[in-house]
Amino acid sequence: MLKSAIDNNSGGRRTLIYETLADGIKHLSSQVVNYFDALYNVFLNGANDTEVKCREQCYYGLGELLFHGEKKSPAAWPEVVQCISNAMSKETEPSAKDRICSALSRLLVSNPTDFQFEEILSALLDLLPLRKEFVDYGAVVQALQFAYAEPRGRTLNFVDRIFGSTVQILYSQTMPESGSYESAVKLFQQISKETPDILNSLRTANPKVYAFVMSL
Q: How many domains, in total, are found in the chain?
């Protein structure tokens, strides 16, 4: 089906196929490993598609694949990092940048060897907040929680930026009401309690934002 869509230059059909494949990964559970290689090749090749909508679904798919791929993920990790790095330098569409955020979030959490932790976290924080694909906040909040819990996230002076991104996400009110929203609130409260100076700085710099997040 994908080959037919490529041969007929049907960007809309290719997008739908990539999206369906990416969304289905989490439902494969332990069977992901059986389809990993085939899906990996599909998404990696699709990341070079001429249609931006196709590419963004492939970035999303690569992130999901590594996140759920268990023992198959580590070998693919460096190549996916390079693919996402290339995407960051060329993509300008808001939805594509959001899907890159999703992929970076998945890369951060699934990192098998602490490979480029600082670079990936910094890139994610630079790209936030999301612009259109707000459903991807689920992966983003999970990544922010992971980064804050990691000693490296603190020793590398990322706490201020993690806190700032969390506040920005909450204040934008674009995050769907879900367990991820509750997780974002808990992360804000945890950082506020453990690092009160950051909270005091927010109160001084932006009383309106401070009042909003304190009401959550």
A: 1
